[in-house]
């Protein structure tokens, strides 16, 4: 287990851990579907779009495709979902606008207060598969108080590829254990732990909706296991004071 006093920076998974992607994408999709496919459910549409997320990145992780930013993948995936849903006649401008749904996601209720608490003692930054412009737009809209924007586009690789974690440690000039990944996804944390990072699991039991089956509990003895980000901030405060 990591000595909490060693931690100097916290990096965060964003989609699902910091922001509620499903509700945000469904909100943006709802108006679009009213125009083009009023019988379709906006949450089902958001889920279908998200299901393309990991397979599209795997093409890059595997080396079958050169790196492209997530905005590009999201747009390609959206076109696939539109075609599969039988939605035709959508203009490029409408597709581009709906693709920006991922830039306009709302944080979970605990996120802003906890991030501002943590920022007083630690460097805080996203370690997301989202590209830089996406992360900046989201942060400015939601008030996320990042010290830097880190993640996939910075290292031109997608989690859980090892270089995402190791190169982020190097960028921050830290030893691996001095950097703690905070995520609601056990797989992300497992990849970080293999590179020596500290780990914090925060449960988000409705990330995938009311019938979520995955990541409902910690699969390993992570350095921190918390119910929300305020609990993490309190534990880190107690370990340092």
From TrEMBL:
- Decide whether keyword Hydrolase is in the record: yes
Q: Does the keyword Transport apply?
A: no
| Coiled coil, from the record | none
User: Membrane-spanning residues where?
Assistant: none
Instruction: Tell me where on the tree of life, at the top rank, the source sits.
Output: Bacteria
Look up the EC number in the record and give it: 3.8.1.2
Specify the protein name. Answer: (S)-2-haloacid dehalogenase 4A
Record organism: Paraburkholderia hiiakae
Its gene is: hdl IVa
């Amino acid at each position: 287990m990591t000595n909490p006093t060693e931690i100097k920076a916290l990096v965060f998974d964003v989609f699902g851990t910091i922001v509620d992607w499903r509700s945000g994408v469904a909100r943006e999709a709802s108006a679009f579907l009213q125009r083009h496919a009023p019988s379709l459910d906006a949450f089902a549409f958001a889920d279908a779009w998200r299901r393309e997320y990991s397979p599209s990145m795997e093409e890059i992780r595997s080396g079958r495709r050169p790196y492209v930013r997530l905005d590009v993948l999201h747009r390609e995936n959206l076109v696939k979902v539109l075609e599969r849903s039988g939605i035709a006649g959508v203009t490029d401008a409408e597709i581009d606008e709906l693709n920006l749904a991922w830039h306009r996601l709302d944080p979970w209720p605990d996120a802003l207060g906890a991030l501002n608490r943590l920022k007083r003692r630690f460097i805080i930054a996203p370690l997301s598969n989202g590209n830089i412009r996406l992360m900046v737009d989201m942060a400015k809209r939601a008030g996320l108080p990042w010290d830097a924007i880190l993640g996939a586009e910075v290292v031109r690789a997608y989690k859980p590829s090892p270089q995402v974690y190791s190169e982020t440690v190097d960028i921050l000039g830290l030893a691996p254990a001095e950097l703690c990944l905070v995520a609601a996804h056990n797989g992300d944390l497992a990849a970080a732990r293999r590179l020596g990072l500290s780990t914090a699991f925060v449960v988000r039991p409705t990330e995938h909706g009311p019938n979520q089956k995955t990541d409902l509990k910690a699969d390993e003895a992570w350095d921190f296991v918390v119910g929300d980000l305020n609990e993490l901030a309190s534990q880190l405060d107690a370990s340092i004071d």
